[in-house]
Amino acid sequence: MAIKLYDAVPSSNSDRVKIALNEKGLAYDRVSLNLARRDQKKPEFLKLNPYGKVPVIDDGGKILFESCIINEYLDEKYPNPPLMPKDPYLRARGRILVDYGMNYLHTTYFALRDEFFFKKEGERDQKLIADKQRELRGMLGYLEEALGEKDYFLGEFSLTDVDLWPRFGRLEDYGALPTPALPRLGAWIQRMKARPSIKALVGQKPIY
Question: Is residue 94 domain-shared with residue 174, that is, in the same domain?
């Protein structure tokens, strides 16, 4: 029985799980919700996820939500190919980098996203955009250093790359990347774009 994925387009959180499913070669059936119509807040969906958010997976009656948690489950339940290293330190290090990319950057990222996604070009606050672009670039310096000379954050491609990607996939649209100050991240983005699991999502515009 194929995994059932409750998703939405656009939704970068949903994309995070789709990338992991694609990397694993796992079949899945999509149940797409319309976020604008607030399908995610309907009582029948809240029974699956009381947060009222996508994605949710149903794996043979086992219901899970929160994209990074789903991805760890997928890697443990379907271990080939593995997407997390065996070394405990590297696993923990990967989780720290994802937490930094999603939670520490959260407020600045969303302020920039809101200007581009919710406003027409002539309505945007250009000073705020410039300030947030500069702020984000400064914060991304930590990830630039963490990447170092490696192709991927933990050396080999891992869930750390999968989980970080959806937001980085938008930073070009928001003018924060590329920048000569962050060449390693720029090269990482190009490597990620070349992966078939991510190419399959081209044209979908994530919003969060």
Answer: yes
114 located within any domain: yes
Closest Cα partner for 192 from 179, 208, 204, 163? 163
Reported for 27-34, long-range contacts at CB under 8 A and 24+ positions apart, including other chains, are 27/2, 27/3, 28/2, 28/3, 28/4, 28/57, 29/2, 29/3, 29/4, 29/5, 30/5, 30/6, 31/4, 31/5, 31/6, 31/7, 32/6, 32/7, 32/8, 33/6, 33/7, 33/8, 34/8
How far apart (Å, rounded) are the C-alpha atoms in residues 103 and 83? 22
Same domain, 185 and 93: yes
Please report the pLDDT score of residue 204 as a whole number.
52
Domain boundary among 77, 106, 125: 77
Domain that holds residue 34: 3-77
In the block, residue with structure tokens 């949710």: 56
Residue 62 CA: distances (Å) to CA of 16, 75, 84: 19, 15, 22
**Same domain assignment for residues 115 and 154:** yes
Q: Which residues of the chain are modeled with pLDDT < 70?
A: 202-208
For CA atoms 94, 95, 96, 102, the dihedral sign is: positive
Backbone angles phi, psi at 196, to 5 degrees: -55, -35
Domain count, the chain: 2
The residue type of 23 is E
